[in-house]
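Researcher: Let's walk through a ligand-bound prediction step by step. First, I give you the protein sequence. Second, the SMILES string for pyridoxal-5'-phosphate. Third, you return the three-dimensional complex as structure tokens. Ready?
Model: Ready.
Researcher: Here are steps one and two:
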Amino acid sequence: MNETIHTDEKTDIARIRIDRWTNAVFEDREVQADILRLDLIHPVISGNKWFKLKYSLSDALAQQKKGLISFGGAWSNHLVAMACACRQYGLKSTGIIRGEEPAVFNPTLRQMKAYGMDLVFVSRAGYRDKEAILKTALDRYPQYYYVPEGGQGDKGIAGAAEILSLAPLEQYTHITCAVGTGTTFAGIINAAGKQQCIGVCCLKIPLSEQASENAPGNELNRYIQSHAGSRRYHLYFDYHFGGYARHTPALLAFMNEVYLTNGIPTDIVYTGKLLYAIINLAQKDHFQKGDRILVIHSGGLLGNRSLSEGALCF
Ligand SMILES: *Cc1c(COP(=O)(O)O)cnc(C)c1O
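Model: Step three, the predicted complex:
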């Protein structure tokens, strides 16, 4: 996949638009699906990550911090978005990366570096003790504002809630989004009106912890419930395709088909699985005639660069 390193392209929420997603499965059932294209904010920045960072950035600026510091893996969409946002706002950034420093950087790490992020690699064993690492890092980077891994927490949720202000909500009966930490989904649930909120979990949660729908059988449900009050939602656990960032030929074929028929690129970690899940739920008649679904395209396209050349047609 050809690689462009972006350094000064600004994020712009004015680029966000809503596209109709056509598919015979929807037409047969007289259901409509629209996609809110947060991926268009920036060529490499995940749309939802941008929203989740908003309030940490404004806090850091108000408190006259030097920069932001956070944790993540070598393919972290969160860290790359943070590196970009900091550069745009004249802040420094430090990313604490899980795992030893690789001899060759992957495209996500290269992009973080291009944005001027300081990268600190920590062994997987050491990484588990985040408090200790953070303490050491803050000694080295005093005056930095700490953002939890993945942009989790109240600030992330408050920023994510603003995503829905970009769509004519009253037109929709359902809102769907991909779920990692659950931060974006919690924000969506808080901002939704009467719509049914559907989250598609992209991590593999053991069956024993899935409990029944909405039962607080796992950390993810507990996190969402403690931040989204008693509001109802549906979380699906069967669309992980083998686990976080795992994929199958069927998923790639589906993503290619969506691109060829609708011109919409998706990513292997989150949005490809989300769209697949929605078609599957429609096939199972989860939606009724007249329903209108708003699908949040949360971005993440940089993750596709982990695939071999030609695996995707876009
Ligand atoms: C991080 C990410 C998610 C998951 O967001 P959470 O708020 O952690 O649940 C979904 N989609 C994309 C493209 C992401 O990069």
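Researcher: And what stands out?
Model: The beta strands are 18-21, 32-37, 67-72, 92-98, 118-122, 144-147, 174-179, 196-201, 234-236, 292-297. The chain has twelve helices and ten strands.
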